[in-house]
TrEMBL record:
SUPFAM superfamilies: Periplasmic binding protein-like II. Keywords: Signal, Transport. Gene3D superfamilies: Periplasmic binding protein-like II. Residues 1-31 are annotated as: Disordered. It is found in: Cell envelope. CDD domains: PBP2_TMBP_like. It comes from the Bacteria. Residues 1-20 have a biased composition (Low complexity). Belongs to the bacterial solute-binding protein 1 family. This is Sugar ABC transporter substrate-binding protein. InterPro entries: Bact_solute-bd_prot1, SBP. Its main location: other. The keyword Transcription does not apply.
Length: 435
């Protein structure tokens, strides 16, 4: 850790002599902390958003120098953690990848304790391994139903009536009757995103690929509900099978072929930044429920912040992440208006409850959604997300089996039972038994 003088009384415990004990960050940071940190973020629009928010941190902590770097995190971070060289002091990372690297990260349980009761139970659960928290929970990515208001209206479909997934199939049929070229429902062609989407639909029903002990639980009524529904949509020829916002997907959205996209809140990026003809015509609603009265949202993806166990200044990195996630003006600086998002960052909502008040929106109504108050739709959905089990260390690797088999189901090459049986067997044999 940093020298005590620089970091204040925030202590970093060294790992045990066996190397198996996680490093713990504990104690309270000092307001007069000084030093230098290197922070990695994903390149692109989010980098620019965080760059502006980090300026607000510099004002609050003028003696901390922040080197903010845009990095291909998926390509670089895991290898850097394992090698232990040229590490950042902190990094943005997908929740699904954190569990697999817990041994290389600081245990942040004690520092997050004061904020725990007000943080989304779902976000805490996915950042927990063996009862300890390894990620600072940042965003909550509630699933929503995105729909083209004009096309539904033309087809006589009332969006307020889409209360179950059966209602959604009925709406897709009505859209296709109106336009024989329509394949109204988006289904994802990228195996990783497809599996993330499947987990959202399972999570809505209170389950996930692994239980709290890391045992596979794909063979269940909940997963059968989703996979049978996918098969029914495919059999009825209601599906556009395309990669998220790649050329074929965008074309099908623009020409009215796709009109129903059950996806995370971050799909709001499409009408704001990419769609031309459909701009102003898309809207967001709660996801349908799997059973009448069931949860109307699940989480699809999400990111947190991690502090590598071999970081040079972990205490100062914690101060930054505490500021961005749990403090004002930090979370307002992240979600409020910026150069990239003049109306605020609309691709997620905070996982920290006090930042997620329906009556205190951090971003403005979205012109590209016809002026809809997306904040209210998203925070209401976020409040219904069931808590989950920790994401197992092998989750990302399981895409080779489950993510790929989901593709075969959408292509009509596998049945729901085949997907469950084959994926369970291979995940168990190649990942769980070897862990």
């Amino acid at each position: 850790g940093a020298p005590a003088a620089a970091a204040g009384p925030l202590a970093a415990c060294a790992p045990g002599s066996s190397g198996s004990e996680p490093r713990k960050l504990t104690g309270t940071p000092s307001a007069s902390a000084k030093g230098e940190i290197t922070i990695w973020n994903r390149s692109g629009d989010l980098f620019k958003v965080f760059d502006a928010a980090i300026d607000a941190f510099r004002k609050a902590y003028p003696d901390i120098k922040v080197n903010h770097q845009a990095v291909d995190i998926d390509a670089k971070l895991a290898n850097t953690l394992i090698s232990g060289t040229d590490l950042p002091d902190g990094s943005f990372w997908d929740d699904a990848k954190i569990g697999g690297q817990a041994e290389h990260l600081y245990d942040l349980t004690d520092l997050i304790a004061p904020y725990r009761d007000k943080t989304s139970a779902y976000k805490l659960s996915v950042n927990t391994v063996g009862g300890r928290i390894y990620g600072v929970p940042w965003d909550l990515d509630p699933g929503l139903l995105w729909y083209r208001e004009d096309l539904l209206e033309d087809a006589g479909v009332d969006p307020a009536g889409l209360k179950t997934y059966d209602d959604l199939l009925a709406a897709a049929r009505s859209l296709r009757e109106k336009n024989p070229k329509a394949r109204p429902l988006h289904m994802e062609k990228d195996p990783f995103l497809g599996q993330l989407w499947l987990e959202m639909l399972a999570g809505q029903q209170g389950t996930s690929l692994a239980d709290a002990d890391g045992q596979v639980r794909l063979d269940s009524k909940e997963y059968r509900n989703v996979l049978n529904w996918v098969r029914d949509a495919v059999d009825d020829d209601l599906v556009t099978h395309a990669e998220y916002l790649k050329q074929a997907d965008l074309a099908a959205l623009e020409n009215g072929q796709q009109a129903l996209v059950p996806w995370a809140v971050w799909w709001s990026f499409a009408p704001q930044q990419l769609l031309k003809k459909g701009k102003g015509k898309w809207r967001a609603a709660p996801l349908p429920a799997w059973t009448p009265g069931g949860a109307r949202s699940g989480a699809m993806g999400g990111s947190s912040f991690i502090i590598p166990a071999k970081a040079k200044n972990p205490e100062l990195a914690w101060l930054l992440y505490e500021f961005l996630c749990f403090k004002e003006p930090g979370y307002s600086a992240v979600y409020g208006p910026s150069e990239v998002y003049p109306g605020g960052l609309t691709t997620s909502v905070p996982s920290y409850g006090p930042a997620r008040r329906p009556d205190k929106p951090l971003f403005e109504p979205v012109a590209a959604l016809g002026g809809q108050d997306l904040w209210k739709v998203a925070v209401d959905a976020a409040d219904t997300i069931p808590s989950a089990a920790p994401i197992p260390a092998w989750w990302a690797k399981s895409v080779d089996y489950l993510g790929n088999n989901l593709q075969r189901l959408i292509e009509g090459k596998m049945s729901p039972d085949d997907v469950i049986d084959d994926s369970t067997k291979k995940i168990q044999r190649n990942l769980v038994d070897r862990a």
